[in-house]
Amino acid sequence: MNAEMLRVDHLGRSFRTRDSGDAERWVIQDMSFSVADGEFITVIGPSGSGKSTLLNLLSQIDLPSAGEIWLEGRCVSTASTAVAKPGLDCRIGYVTQDDNLLPWRNLLDNVTFPLKVQGRLDAAGIARARELLAAVGLEGFEKYYPHELSGGMRKRASIIRTLVYDPPIILMDEPFGALDAQTRLQLQNDLLKLWTAKRKTILFVTHDIVEAIGLADRVLVLSRAPTHIAAEHVVDLPRPRALDELLAQPGFAALHERIRALVR
Ligand code: ADP
Ligand code: MG
After folding, report:
1. Pocket test for ligand 1, best of 53, 63, 208 (most atoms within 8 A of CB)
2. Cα–Cα 20 to 30 A to 39, which of 5, 48, 167, 202?
3. pTM (whole model) above 0.85
4. In whole angstroms, what is the distance from residue 101 CA to residue 165 CA?
C-alpha cells in the first residue's frame, strides 16, 4: 500500500440555520477515512448529503467545526484553524461542479490561467497545457472561446486547467453530472487515462453508482445526515477498464446491489 496522502479524522461541520431556530445543524459529523497516494476514491451519496461541503473542507475553502484534516502527514485544518488557505499552496486542485471558465479568455488562456495567477506561467507551462489539451482531443481548439465549445469540451478544459499546475490531490465535484450519456462515458475514459498517466490522488464525488464503481479503487458510501462514512467497498475490477462493458464484468452486479441498498 502506498503512503497515506490524506486523512480525515472525526471531521464535523455544522451550520446555523434559520429554520432550526438558530441552532447548529450538523451536516457532517464524526467522519473519518484515509486516502493513499495515487488512489482513486469515489464518494457516493444522495443530493444534499454533504458531498460539496466535504470537498469545500478538503480544498480548504471552508473550515471544519470539529475534527482534523491531515495532508501528507501534516495537520492542515482543525476547528481552531483561524484562516482558510484555499488550495493549500497549490497542493490541492478542485474541479467544481460548474466549469467556471472565463468567457472572455480563449481555451488556452483559460487552462493556463492558474499558472498566470500563481506568477509561474512560462513556455514550459504553455507546452504542458497544449500537451494535456491534445491528450483529451482539444488540439486545434486553443483559440476558441468557451461559448464556442460544447459542454463536454468545457468540462475537459476545466479538468486540464487543474492538471496543468500539477497538484498531487485533485477533488472533483460531480463533474460529469450535466452531460449526456455518451459524452460522460468518453470523459470518464479520458479521466482514467489521465489518472493512469499522472498517478494523481483523486477524490471524486458522485451520486451515480455505476460511475462510482467504474472509476474507483475504493468507493466510500455516505450515510444520511449528519453524514459520515456508512461503508466502504474496494473495487477489484481489473484495469484498464472498459467502462461501457462494466455491467458484464463478474462481480459488478453484486457490488452495485450492495451499494444501492446503502444509498437508498
Ligand atoms: P451535496 O453536495 O451532497 O448535494 P451539500 O454539501 O451541498 O450537499 O449540502 C449539504 C447540506 O448542507 C444541505 O442541507 C445544505 O443546505 C447545507 N449547507 C451547505 N452549505 C451551507 C451553508 N453555508 N449554510 C447553511 N447550510 C449549508
Ligand atoms: Mg453538491
Report:
1. 53
2. 48
3. yes
4. 16
